[in-house]
Design brief:
37 strands; binds uridine-diphosphate-N-acetylglucosamine; binds calcium ion; 16% helix; 7-stranded mixed β-sheet; alpha/beta; 2 domains; Spore Coat Polysaccharide Biosynthesis Protein SpsA, Chain A; 455 residues
Length: 455
């Protein structure tokens, strides 16, 4: 087997995007288009990955920032053949060159493997039949059905325009041969460009067989030229994500309303309601249910957890059989042990909450180590920040914190301690005792409300 070198063309401007950002850096599922292609190249165990950039300067190489990708510049966009030629010095004659496109992100490794297989001996070309082939290069075959050449739409005769088999642009072929053909390209065509597609006729002339491969789905070879095509491909991509999860035993309430922007691993009997967004690395155990409109990022959710609607959870661990939400915000560094409850309008940051503790309403818990069996009353706030430094709050096992309490960190609440509602706790409180800081309730006899002066 020859070594595989993958060339990714990404020099075009993408003017129809109407964007300051080079087209190939626009995201699908939160990841740059060209990064999708690079990741697929990795899956093929390519020996070399070469990116051809041009428009937008070195923003593309700098943003991708991957030492395993060799970037070459195409100063002027003189055509796809010229673009590939810029990369050829990086290739050895014995390599198989695979041409991919930074704006064709959904190409599958299975399809490319088949192409590479055929390219061990022949010229391998990825083609597809389209109901509307307008704009694409057409595959011209001879009487025996063998590929003879490609004609670009703008150069095609009326008869050739009727051909529905089109060039996807993706191909694989011996690099030494490709190098020689590229040297012989000229730009005497309708667009005055050096067409990569002209090498097909040269290959045929050199008695090389041109073999075609078709992708399983048309989406694989669709390019992004506009924001609406970007949204269309995002839709295809997300639908295939949802499909994969459903095959693994997840109930996705509406596959068109689930977004995965990263890697998700799921257990059995998981239910994902509508408009759930899973980002980064998300691990979900068995029997987890996630309600509508939740955003969950870089988080582990253990078995049996129920996340109610409208929760935002990031860099956290949610212990088995816990309940979170609705309307909870769980921020980075939070570890909830098993059977905890985090209710509505509760924010938790950088805190450990041990087994069975409950923070059910309207609270801020930050930089806190909370024992097990704790009950936090509504409106409790850990005051963790003095304007310059952050301090920790420690709450012992089975403590009961009355509503509307402020715990001024650094402070420690003892095991089984009770804090009266409305307290401002500035000093450590003892185990087992009731601590309260509010003044004794009094009533003033004969007191009258102030009245306004009559003019
Ligand atoms: C090309 C093919 C056409 C095929 C179509 C599939 C040629 C001559 N034609 O046409 O047969 O049906 O793709 O979409 O190859 N690029 C560069 N540098 C350049 C020119 C292009 O990097 O100088 C990159 C672009 O950024 C783009 C890709 O190559 O990602 C394709 O270029 P484009 O000009 O869009 O080719 P098409 O005219 O669509
Ligand atoms: Ca194009």
């Amino acid at each position: 087997m020859s070594k595989v070198s993958i060339i990714i063309l990404a020099a075009g401007q993408g003017s129809r995007m109407k964007s300051a950002l080079p087209k190939v850096l626009h995201p699908i599922a939160g990841k740059a288009l060209v990064q999708h292609v690079i990741d697929t190249a990795y899956q093929l165990n390519a020996d070399k990955i070469i990116g051809v950039y041009g428009h937008g300067g070195d923003i593309v190489p700098k943003t991708i920032n991957d030492d395993n990708v060799k970037w070459v510049i195409q100063e002027q966009q003189l055509g796809t053949g010229h673009a590939v030629d810029q990369a050829m010095p990086e290739l050895e004659d014995s390599d198989i060159a695979v041409i991919l496109y930074g704006d064709v992100p959904l190409i599958k490794k299975e399809t490319l493997s088949e192409l590479i297989q055929k390219a061990q001996k022949d010229f391998a070309l990825l083609t597809v039949n389209l109901d509307d082939p307008t704009g694409y290069g057409r595959i011209v075959r001879n009487a025996e059905g063998k590929v003879e050449r490609i004609v670009e739409h703008k150069d095609a005769t009326e008869e050739e325009k009727l051909i529905s088999e089109i060039n996807t642009g993706i191909l694989a072929v011996n690099a030494g041969e490709l190098r020689n053909w590229l040297k012989r390209l000229d730009n005497s065509n309708a667009q005055g460009e050096y067409y990569l597609t002209d090498v097909i006729a040269m290959a045929v002339n050199d008695d090389m067989e041109v073999q075609t491969v078709n992708p399983e789905n048309e989406e694989e070879v669709l390019g992004v030229n506009s924001r609406s095509q970007l949204a269309e491909l995002e839709g295809f991509f997300q639908l295939s994500n949802a499909q994969k999860l459903m095959e693994q035993g997840v109930s996705v309430i509406d596959p068109t309303r689930l977004d995965i922007r990263g890697n998700v691993s799921v257990g059995k009997d998981v239910t994902l309601d509508i408009n759930v967004i899973l980002e980064g690395n998300v691990v979900i155990g068995d029997n987890v249910s996630i309600g509508a409109n939740c955003v969950i990022k870089d988080t582990t959710i253990e078995t049996g957890v129920v996340i109610q609607p409208m929760c935002h959870i990031e860099q956290a661990v949610i212990g088995a059989d816990s309940k979170v939400g609705p309307f909870a915000r769980v921020r980075p560094g939070t570890k909830l042990a098993e059977q905890t409850h985090v209710g509505n309008f509760v924010e938790i940051k950088n805190s450990n909450v041990a087994k069975g503790s409950k923070i059910n309403h309207l609270s801020y818990i930050g930089d806190t180590d909370m024992g097990s069996g704790v009950n936090i009353g509504a409106g409790t706030i850990t005051c963790n920040y003095d304007g310059a430094n952050k301090f920790r709050t420690v709450i012992g096992d089975n403590a009961f914190i009355g509503s509307d309490t402020q715990l001024i960190a650094p402070v420690k609440v003892g095991d089984n301690a009770t804090i009266g509602a409305g307290s401002t706790i500035t000093k450590d409180t003892p185990d087992n005792e009731l601590t309260l800081t509010r003044a004794k309730q009094t009533s003033i006899k004969g007191w009258q409300r102030p009245t306004k002066d009559k003019k």
